[in-house]
Each structure stands twice: as structure tokens, then as C-alpha cells.
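User: Batch of two.

Assistant: Item 1 of 2:
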Amino acid sequence: MHLSKNNKNIKYFYLLILIFISSVNNYNFQIFKNNLFKVSKINISGVENKLKNEINLNLESFKNKNIFFLDKKIISEELKKFNYIEHYSIFKKYPSELYIDLKLTKLIGTTFKNNKKFYVGSNKKFISSTKFKEKSNLPNIFGDFEIIELINFFDLLEENNFNLKDIKQIYFFESKRWDIILKNDLLIKFPSSNLDNSIKIAKNIIDSDLELKKVIDLRVSNQVIIRDE
């Protein structure tokens, strides 16, 4: 993040102070000098208190570091350890405070791995469900999938005007194909190939005046099967 002109001026002002007090040998001045530019407070915004406390604890080692020589890249590496963070910005407020603004990743579904519940983040990471309050409005996702496969599938659905909030359950199969169950209990079976076209067909059927059945089966090439169960 680039420093504004005003902030650069402030930095130069404090540097001049640092140069001045560095030349003073008085004992009290030495104590003052040693403490003036140490990080005394780290302010975190953008997350709830539970996560804020966790992050603050991990950033504790940056306190009492000289703010001029504290490299933001080192702070960035520490923030990257938290897989629920999507974006962040770091700002030094001289003489002794850090401001860190965080943006959480968007949660797009829930799944289970090794019998433990995880949220799926739009940042392509699995996030322990213990990090957040229960999210009941997310689709449950079953199967051994890679997150990038899920993200690509969601992108295709959104490109074809599917409302992801209407999806209740998602199933991924070893054959690399998807089934979805909507909140109205409509099951849509997609093929493993030509997925984009199949999604278009499914959306057209849903948007048509035809009375919807229970199943739209698109697994067989050039066939559309609509049935009651």
C-alpha cells in the first residue's frame, strides 16, 4: 500500500526526531528514545472479536518492535496463516501503532473431511467450522472434490443465472460429474462433459412454463430426461 503524501511527511518528521534523540546521551532521553518508536498497539478491524483475539495473539511478537524497521512483508506472512482471510491492508501510524484491516473470505458451502465439518471458502481453502457461528443457509457438499473444481462449477452456474442460494445439496462423483438438489427438492443430474451447455439446458427448463418434475437428468449426451422421481 502506497503512503499518502501527508503520511510520508509524518514519517520524515518522526525520522528527524529519531535522528535528534539518537544524538542525545542523557539517560532519560535514552529511555524515551528506546520506547518512542516501538509498536505499542495493534488495531485490527473487519472481523468479529473471536477471530480478532486469535489474530492479535499471533501478532503479539510484533509489539515492541521498531515501527520504522518493521517489514510489512513479515506481517503479511503471519496473516497468510489464517485461511479465512481473503484480503488485508497494513498501515503504520507513527509513532507506535499498527492498523490492520481484514476482509474475510466468502463461505460458499459446508463439507466433511475425515469426519470433521469444514466450510468451503471462495479463496479456495477448507476452513474449520469452529472458526464461525453455524451457517445454516449454505449448501451441503458431498464427495471427494478439489475446491478449484467446485469454484469452476459455481462459476458456470452463476454465468447461467443460477441463484446459488437456491441450492440445498451438491454431490460430486468419481466420474467428475455433479448433482445438485434445489431447495424445492428438484434434483438435477449433470454429465461429466459439456457441462456448460447442460447447465444452460437445465436453466431453460426451470424457467419454462412446463410443470417441473422431481428430476432433470442430463447425463446422456443429446438427451433430456424429466421424471417424477
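Item 2 of 2:
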Amino acid sequence: MEIIALDPESLSRRTVRYCYSSERYYDLVIKNDSDRWTVDLFLKEFPAPFLKEESYNLLDPFKEHPIAYGAFDSCKELGLILFGREWNNLLRIWDILVWEENRRMGVGKKLMDAARDYAITSGMRRLVLETQNCNYRAISFYLKYGFELAGFDTACYSNEDIERREVRLEFHYLL
């Protein structure tokens, strides 16, 4: 497997399919007892597997000055990572995509290593990414890699994110 820097312009018209299923999720419970807030994330089972699937343009306009790497075996693309610098000296990972038939082969780790190495070489202070509380496999991967929970947004995707069990979680990796 080889990790290769890509010209982001070559990805400008590319649409990708984002798909995962999950049997587990982290239930977010927030309580306010007048002088104290508590936030808990409880691992729970879905009554039936949760399926998320959508297609989107890889280079959305908000992704300014993107940096991209691809994982390849000979000429076969195994996955991609897309990230960019933000104003506060961090590297935001917008996308880490490993094609389904290549998962659990170390591709995600190699792509994450490329982003981490780029951040270190560039003098960044941390890596940041988002996922959803229902994406149990991604959360497990990020935790195993060394990421930590940095925050959450209970109304990022809709006004019913908690009820829909699809809350935005932010993770970071301090460098």
C-alpha cells in the first residue's frame, strides 16, 4: 500500500458515496440542575441497525485550500483523506474515506498517519474531526488511534439531533 499526495483540483468534480451501518450509538443525556450541568454519553444498542447513506461533492466550497492523500495498491484506489488548515493552528480532517471492500486492512490508519505527519511537519497543534454519535465504528477507530472527545453540537444537522440519535461529536488529537 502506498500513500500518495493528490492534486485537490483532480477531485473538484468528484462525487463520493458515504455509507455506514451501526448497531450501537452513544446516547447523549444533558441535565441542568440550576447550578450544575452534567453530560453523559451512554453506549446503547439500536433496536434495528442504523443505516446512513448519502452522496456529496468531495470538494464542497467550505473546504478552503484542501490537502488530499490517497491510498493505493498498484493503481487501485483504496481510500482518501481530505483536510485543511484552520485559523487557530489546527488541521481539520473533513473526510477520511476507505472504500468498503478495503476496510479493516489498515488503510484508515495509514491515511490518518499521513494527516498527522503533515500536521506535525507544518507546526499544527492538533488534528480535529467530526463524526456522529451513531457512527460507532468510526468512533472506535478514532479512539483507538488516540483521539479524544472535544465537544458536541446537539442541533448541527437538525433541531431533533438528540431524538434522531445523530448528534455531531468533535474529536481531537493533540500534537
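The chain is about 15% helix and 50% strand.
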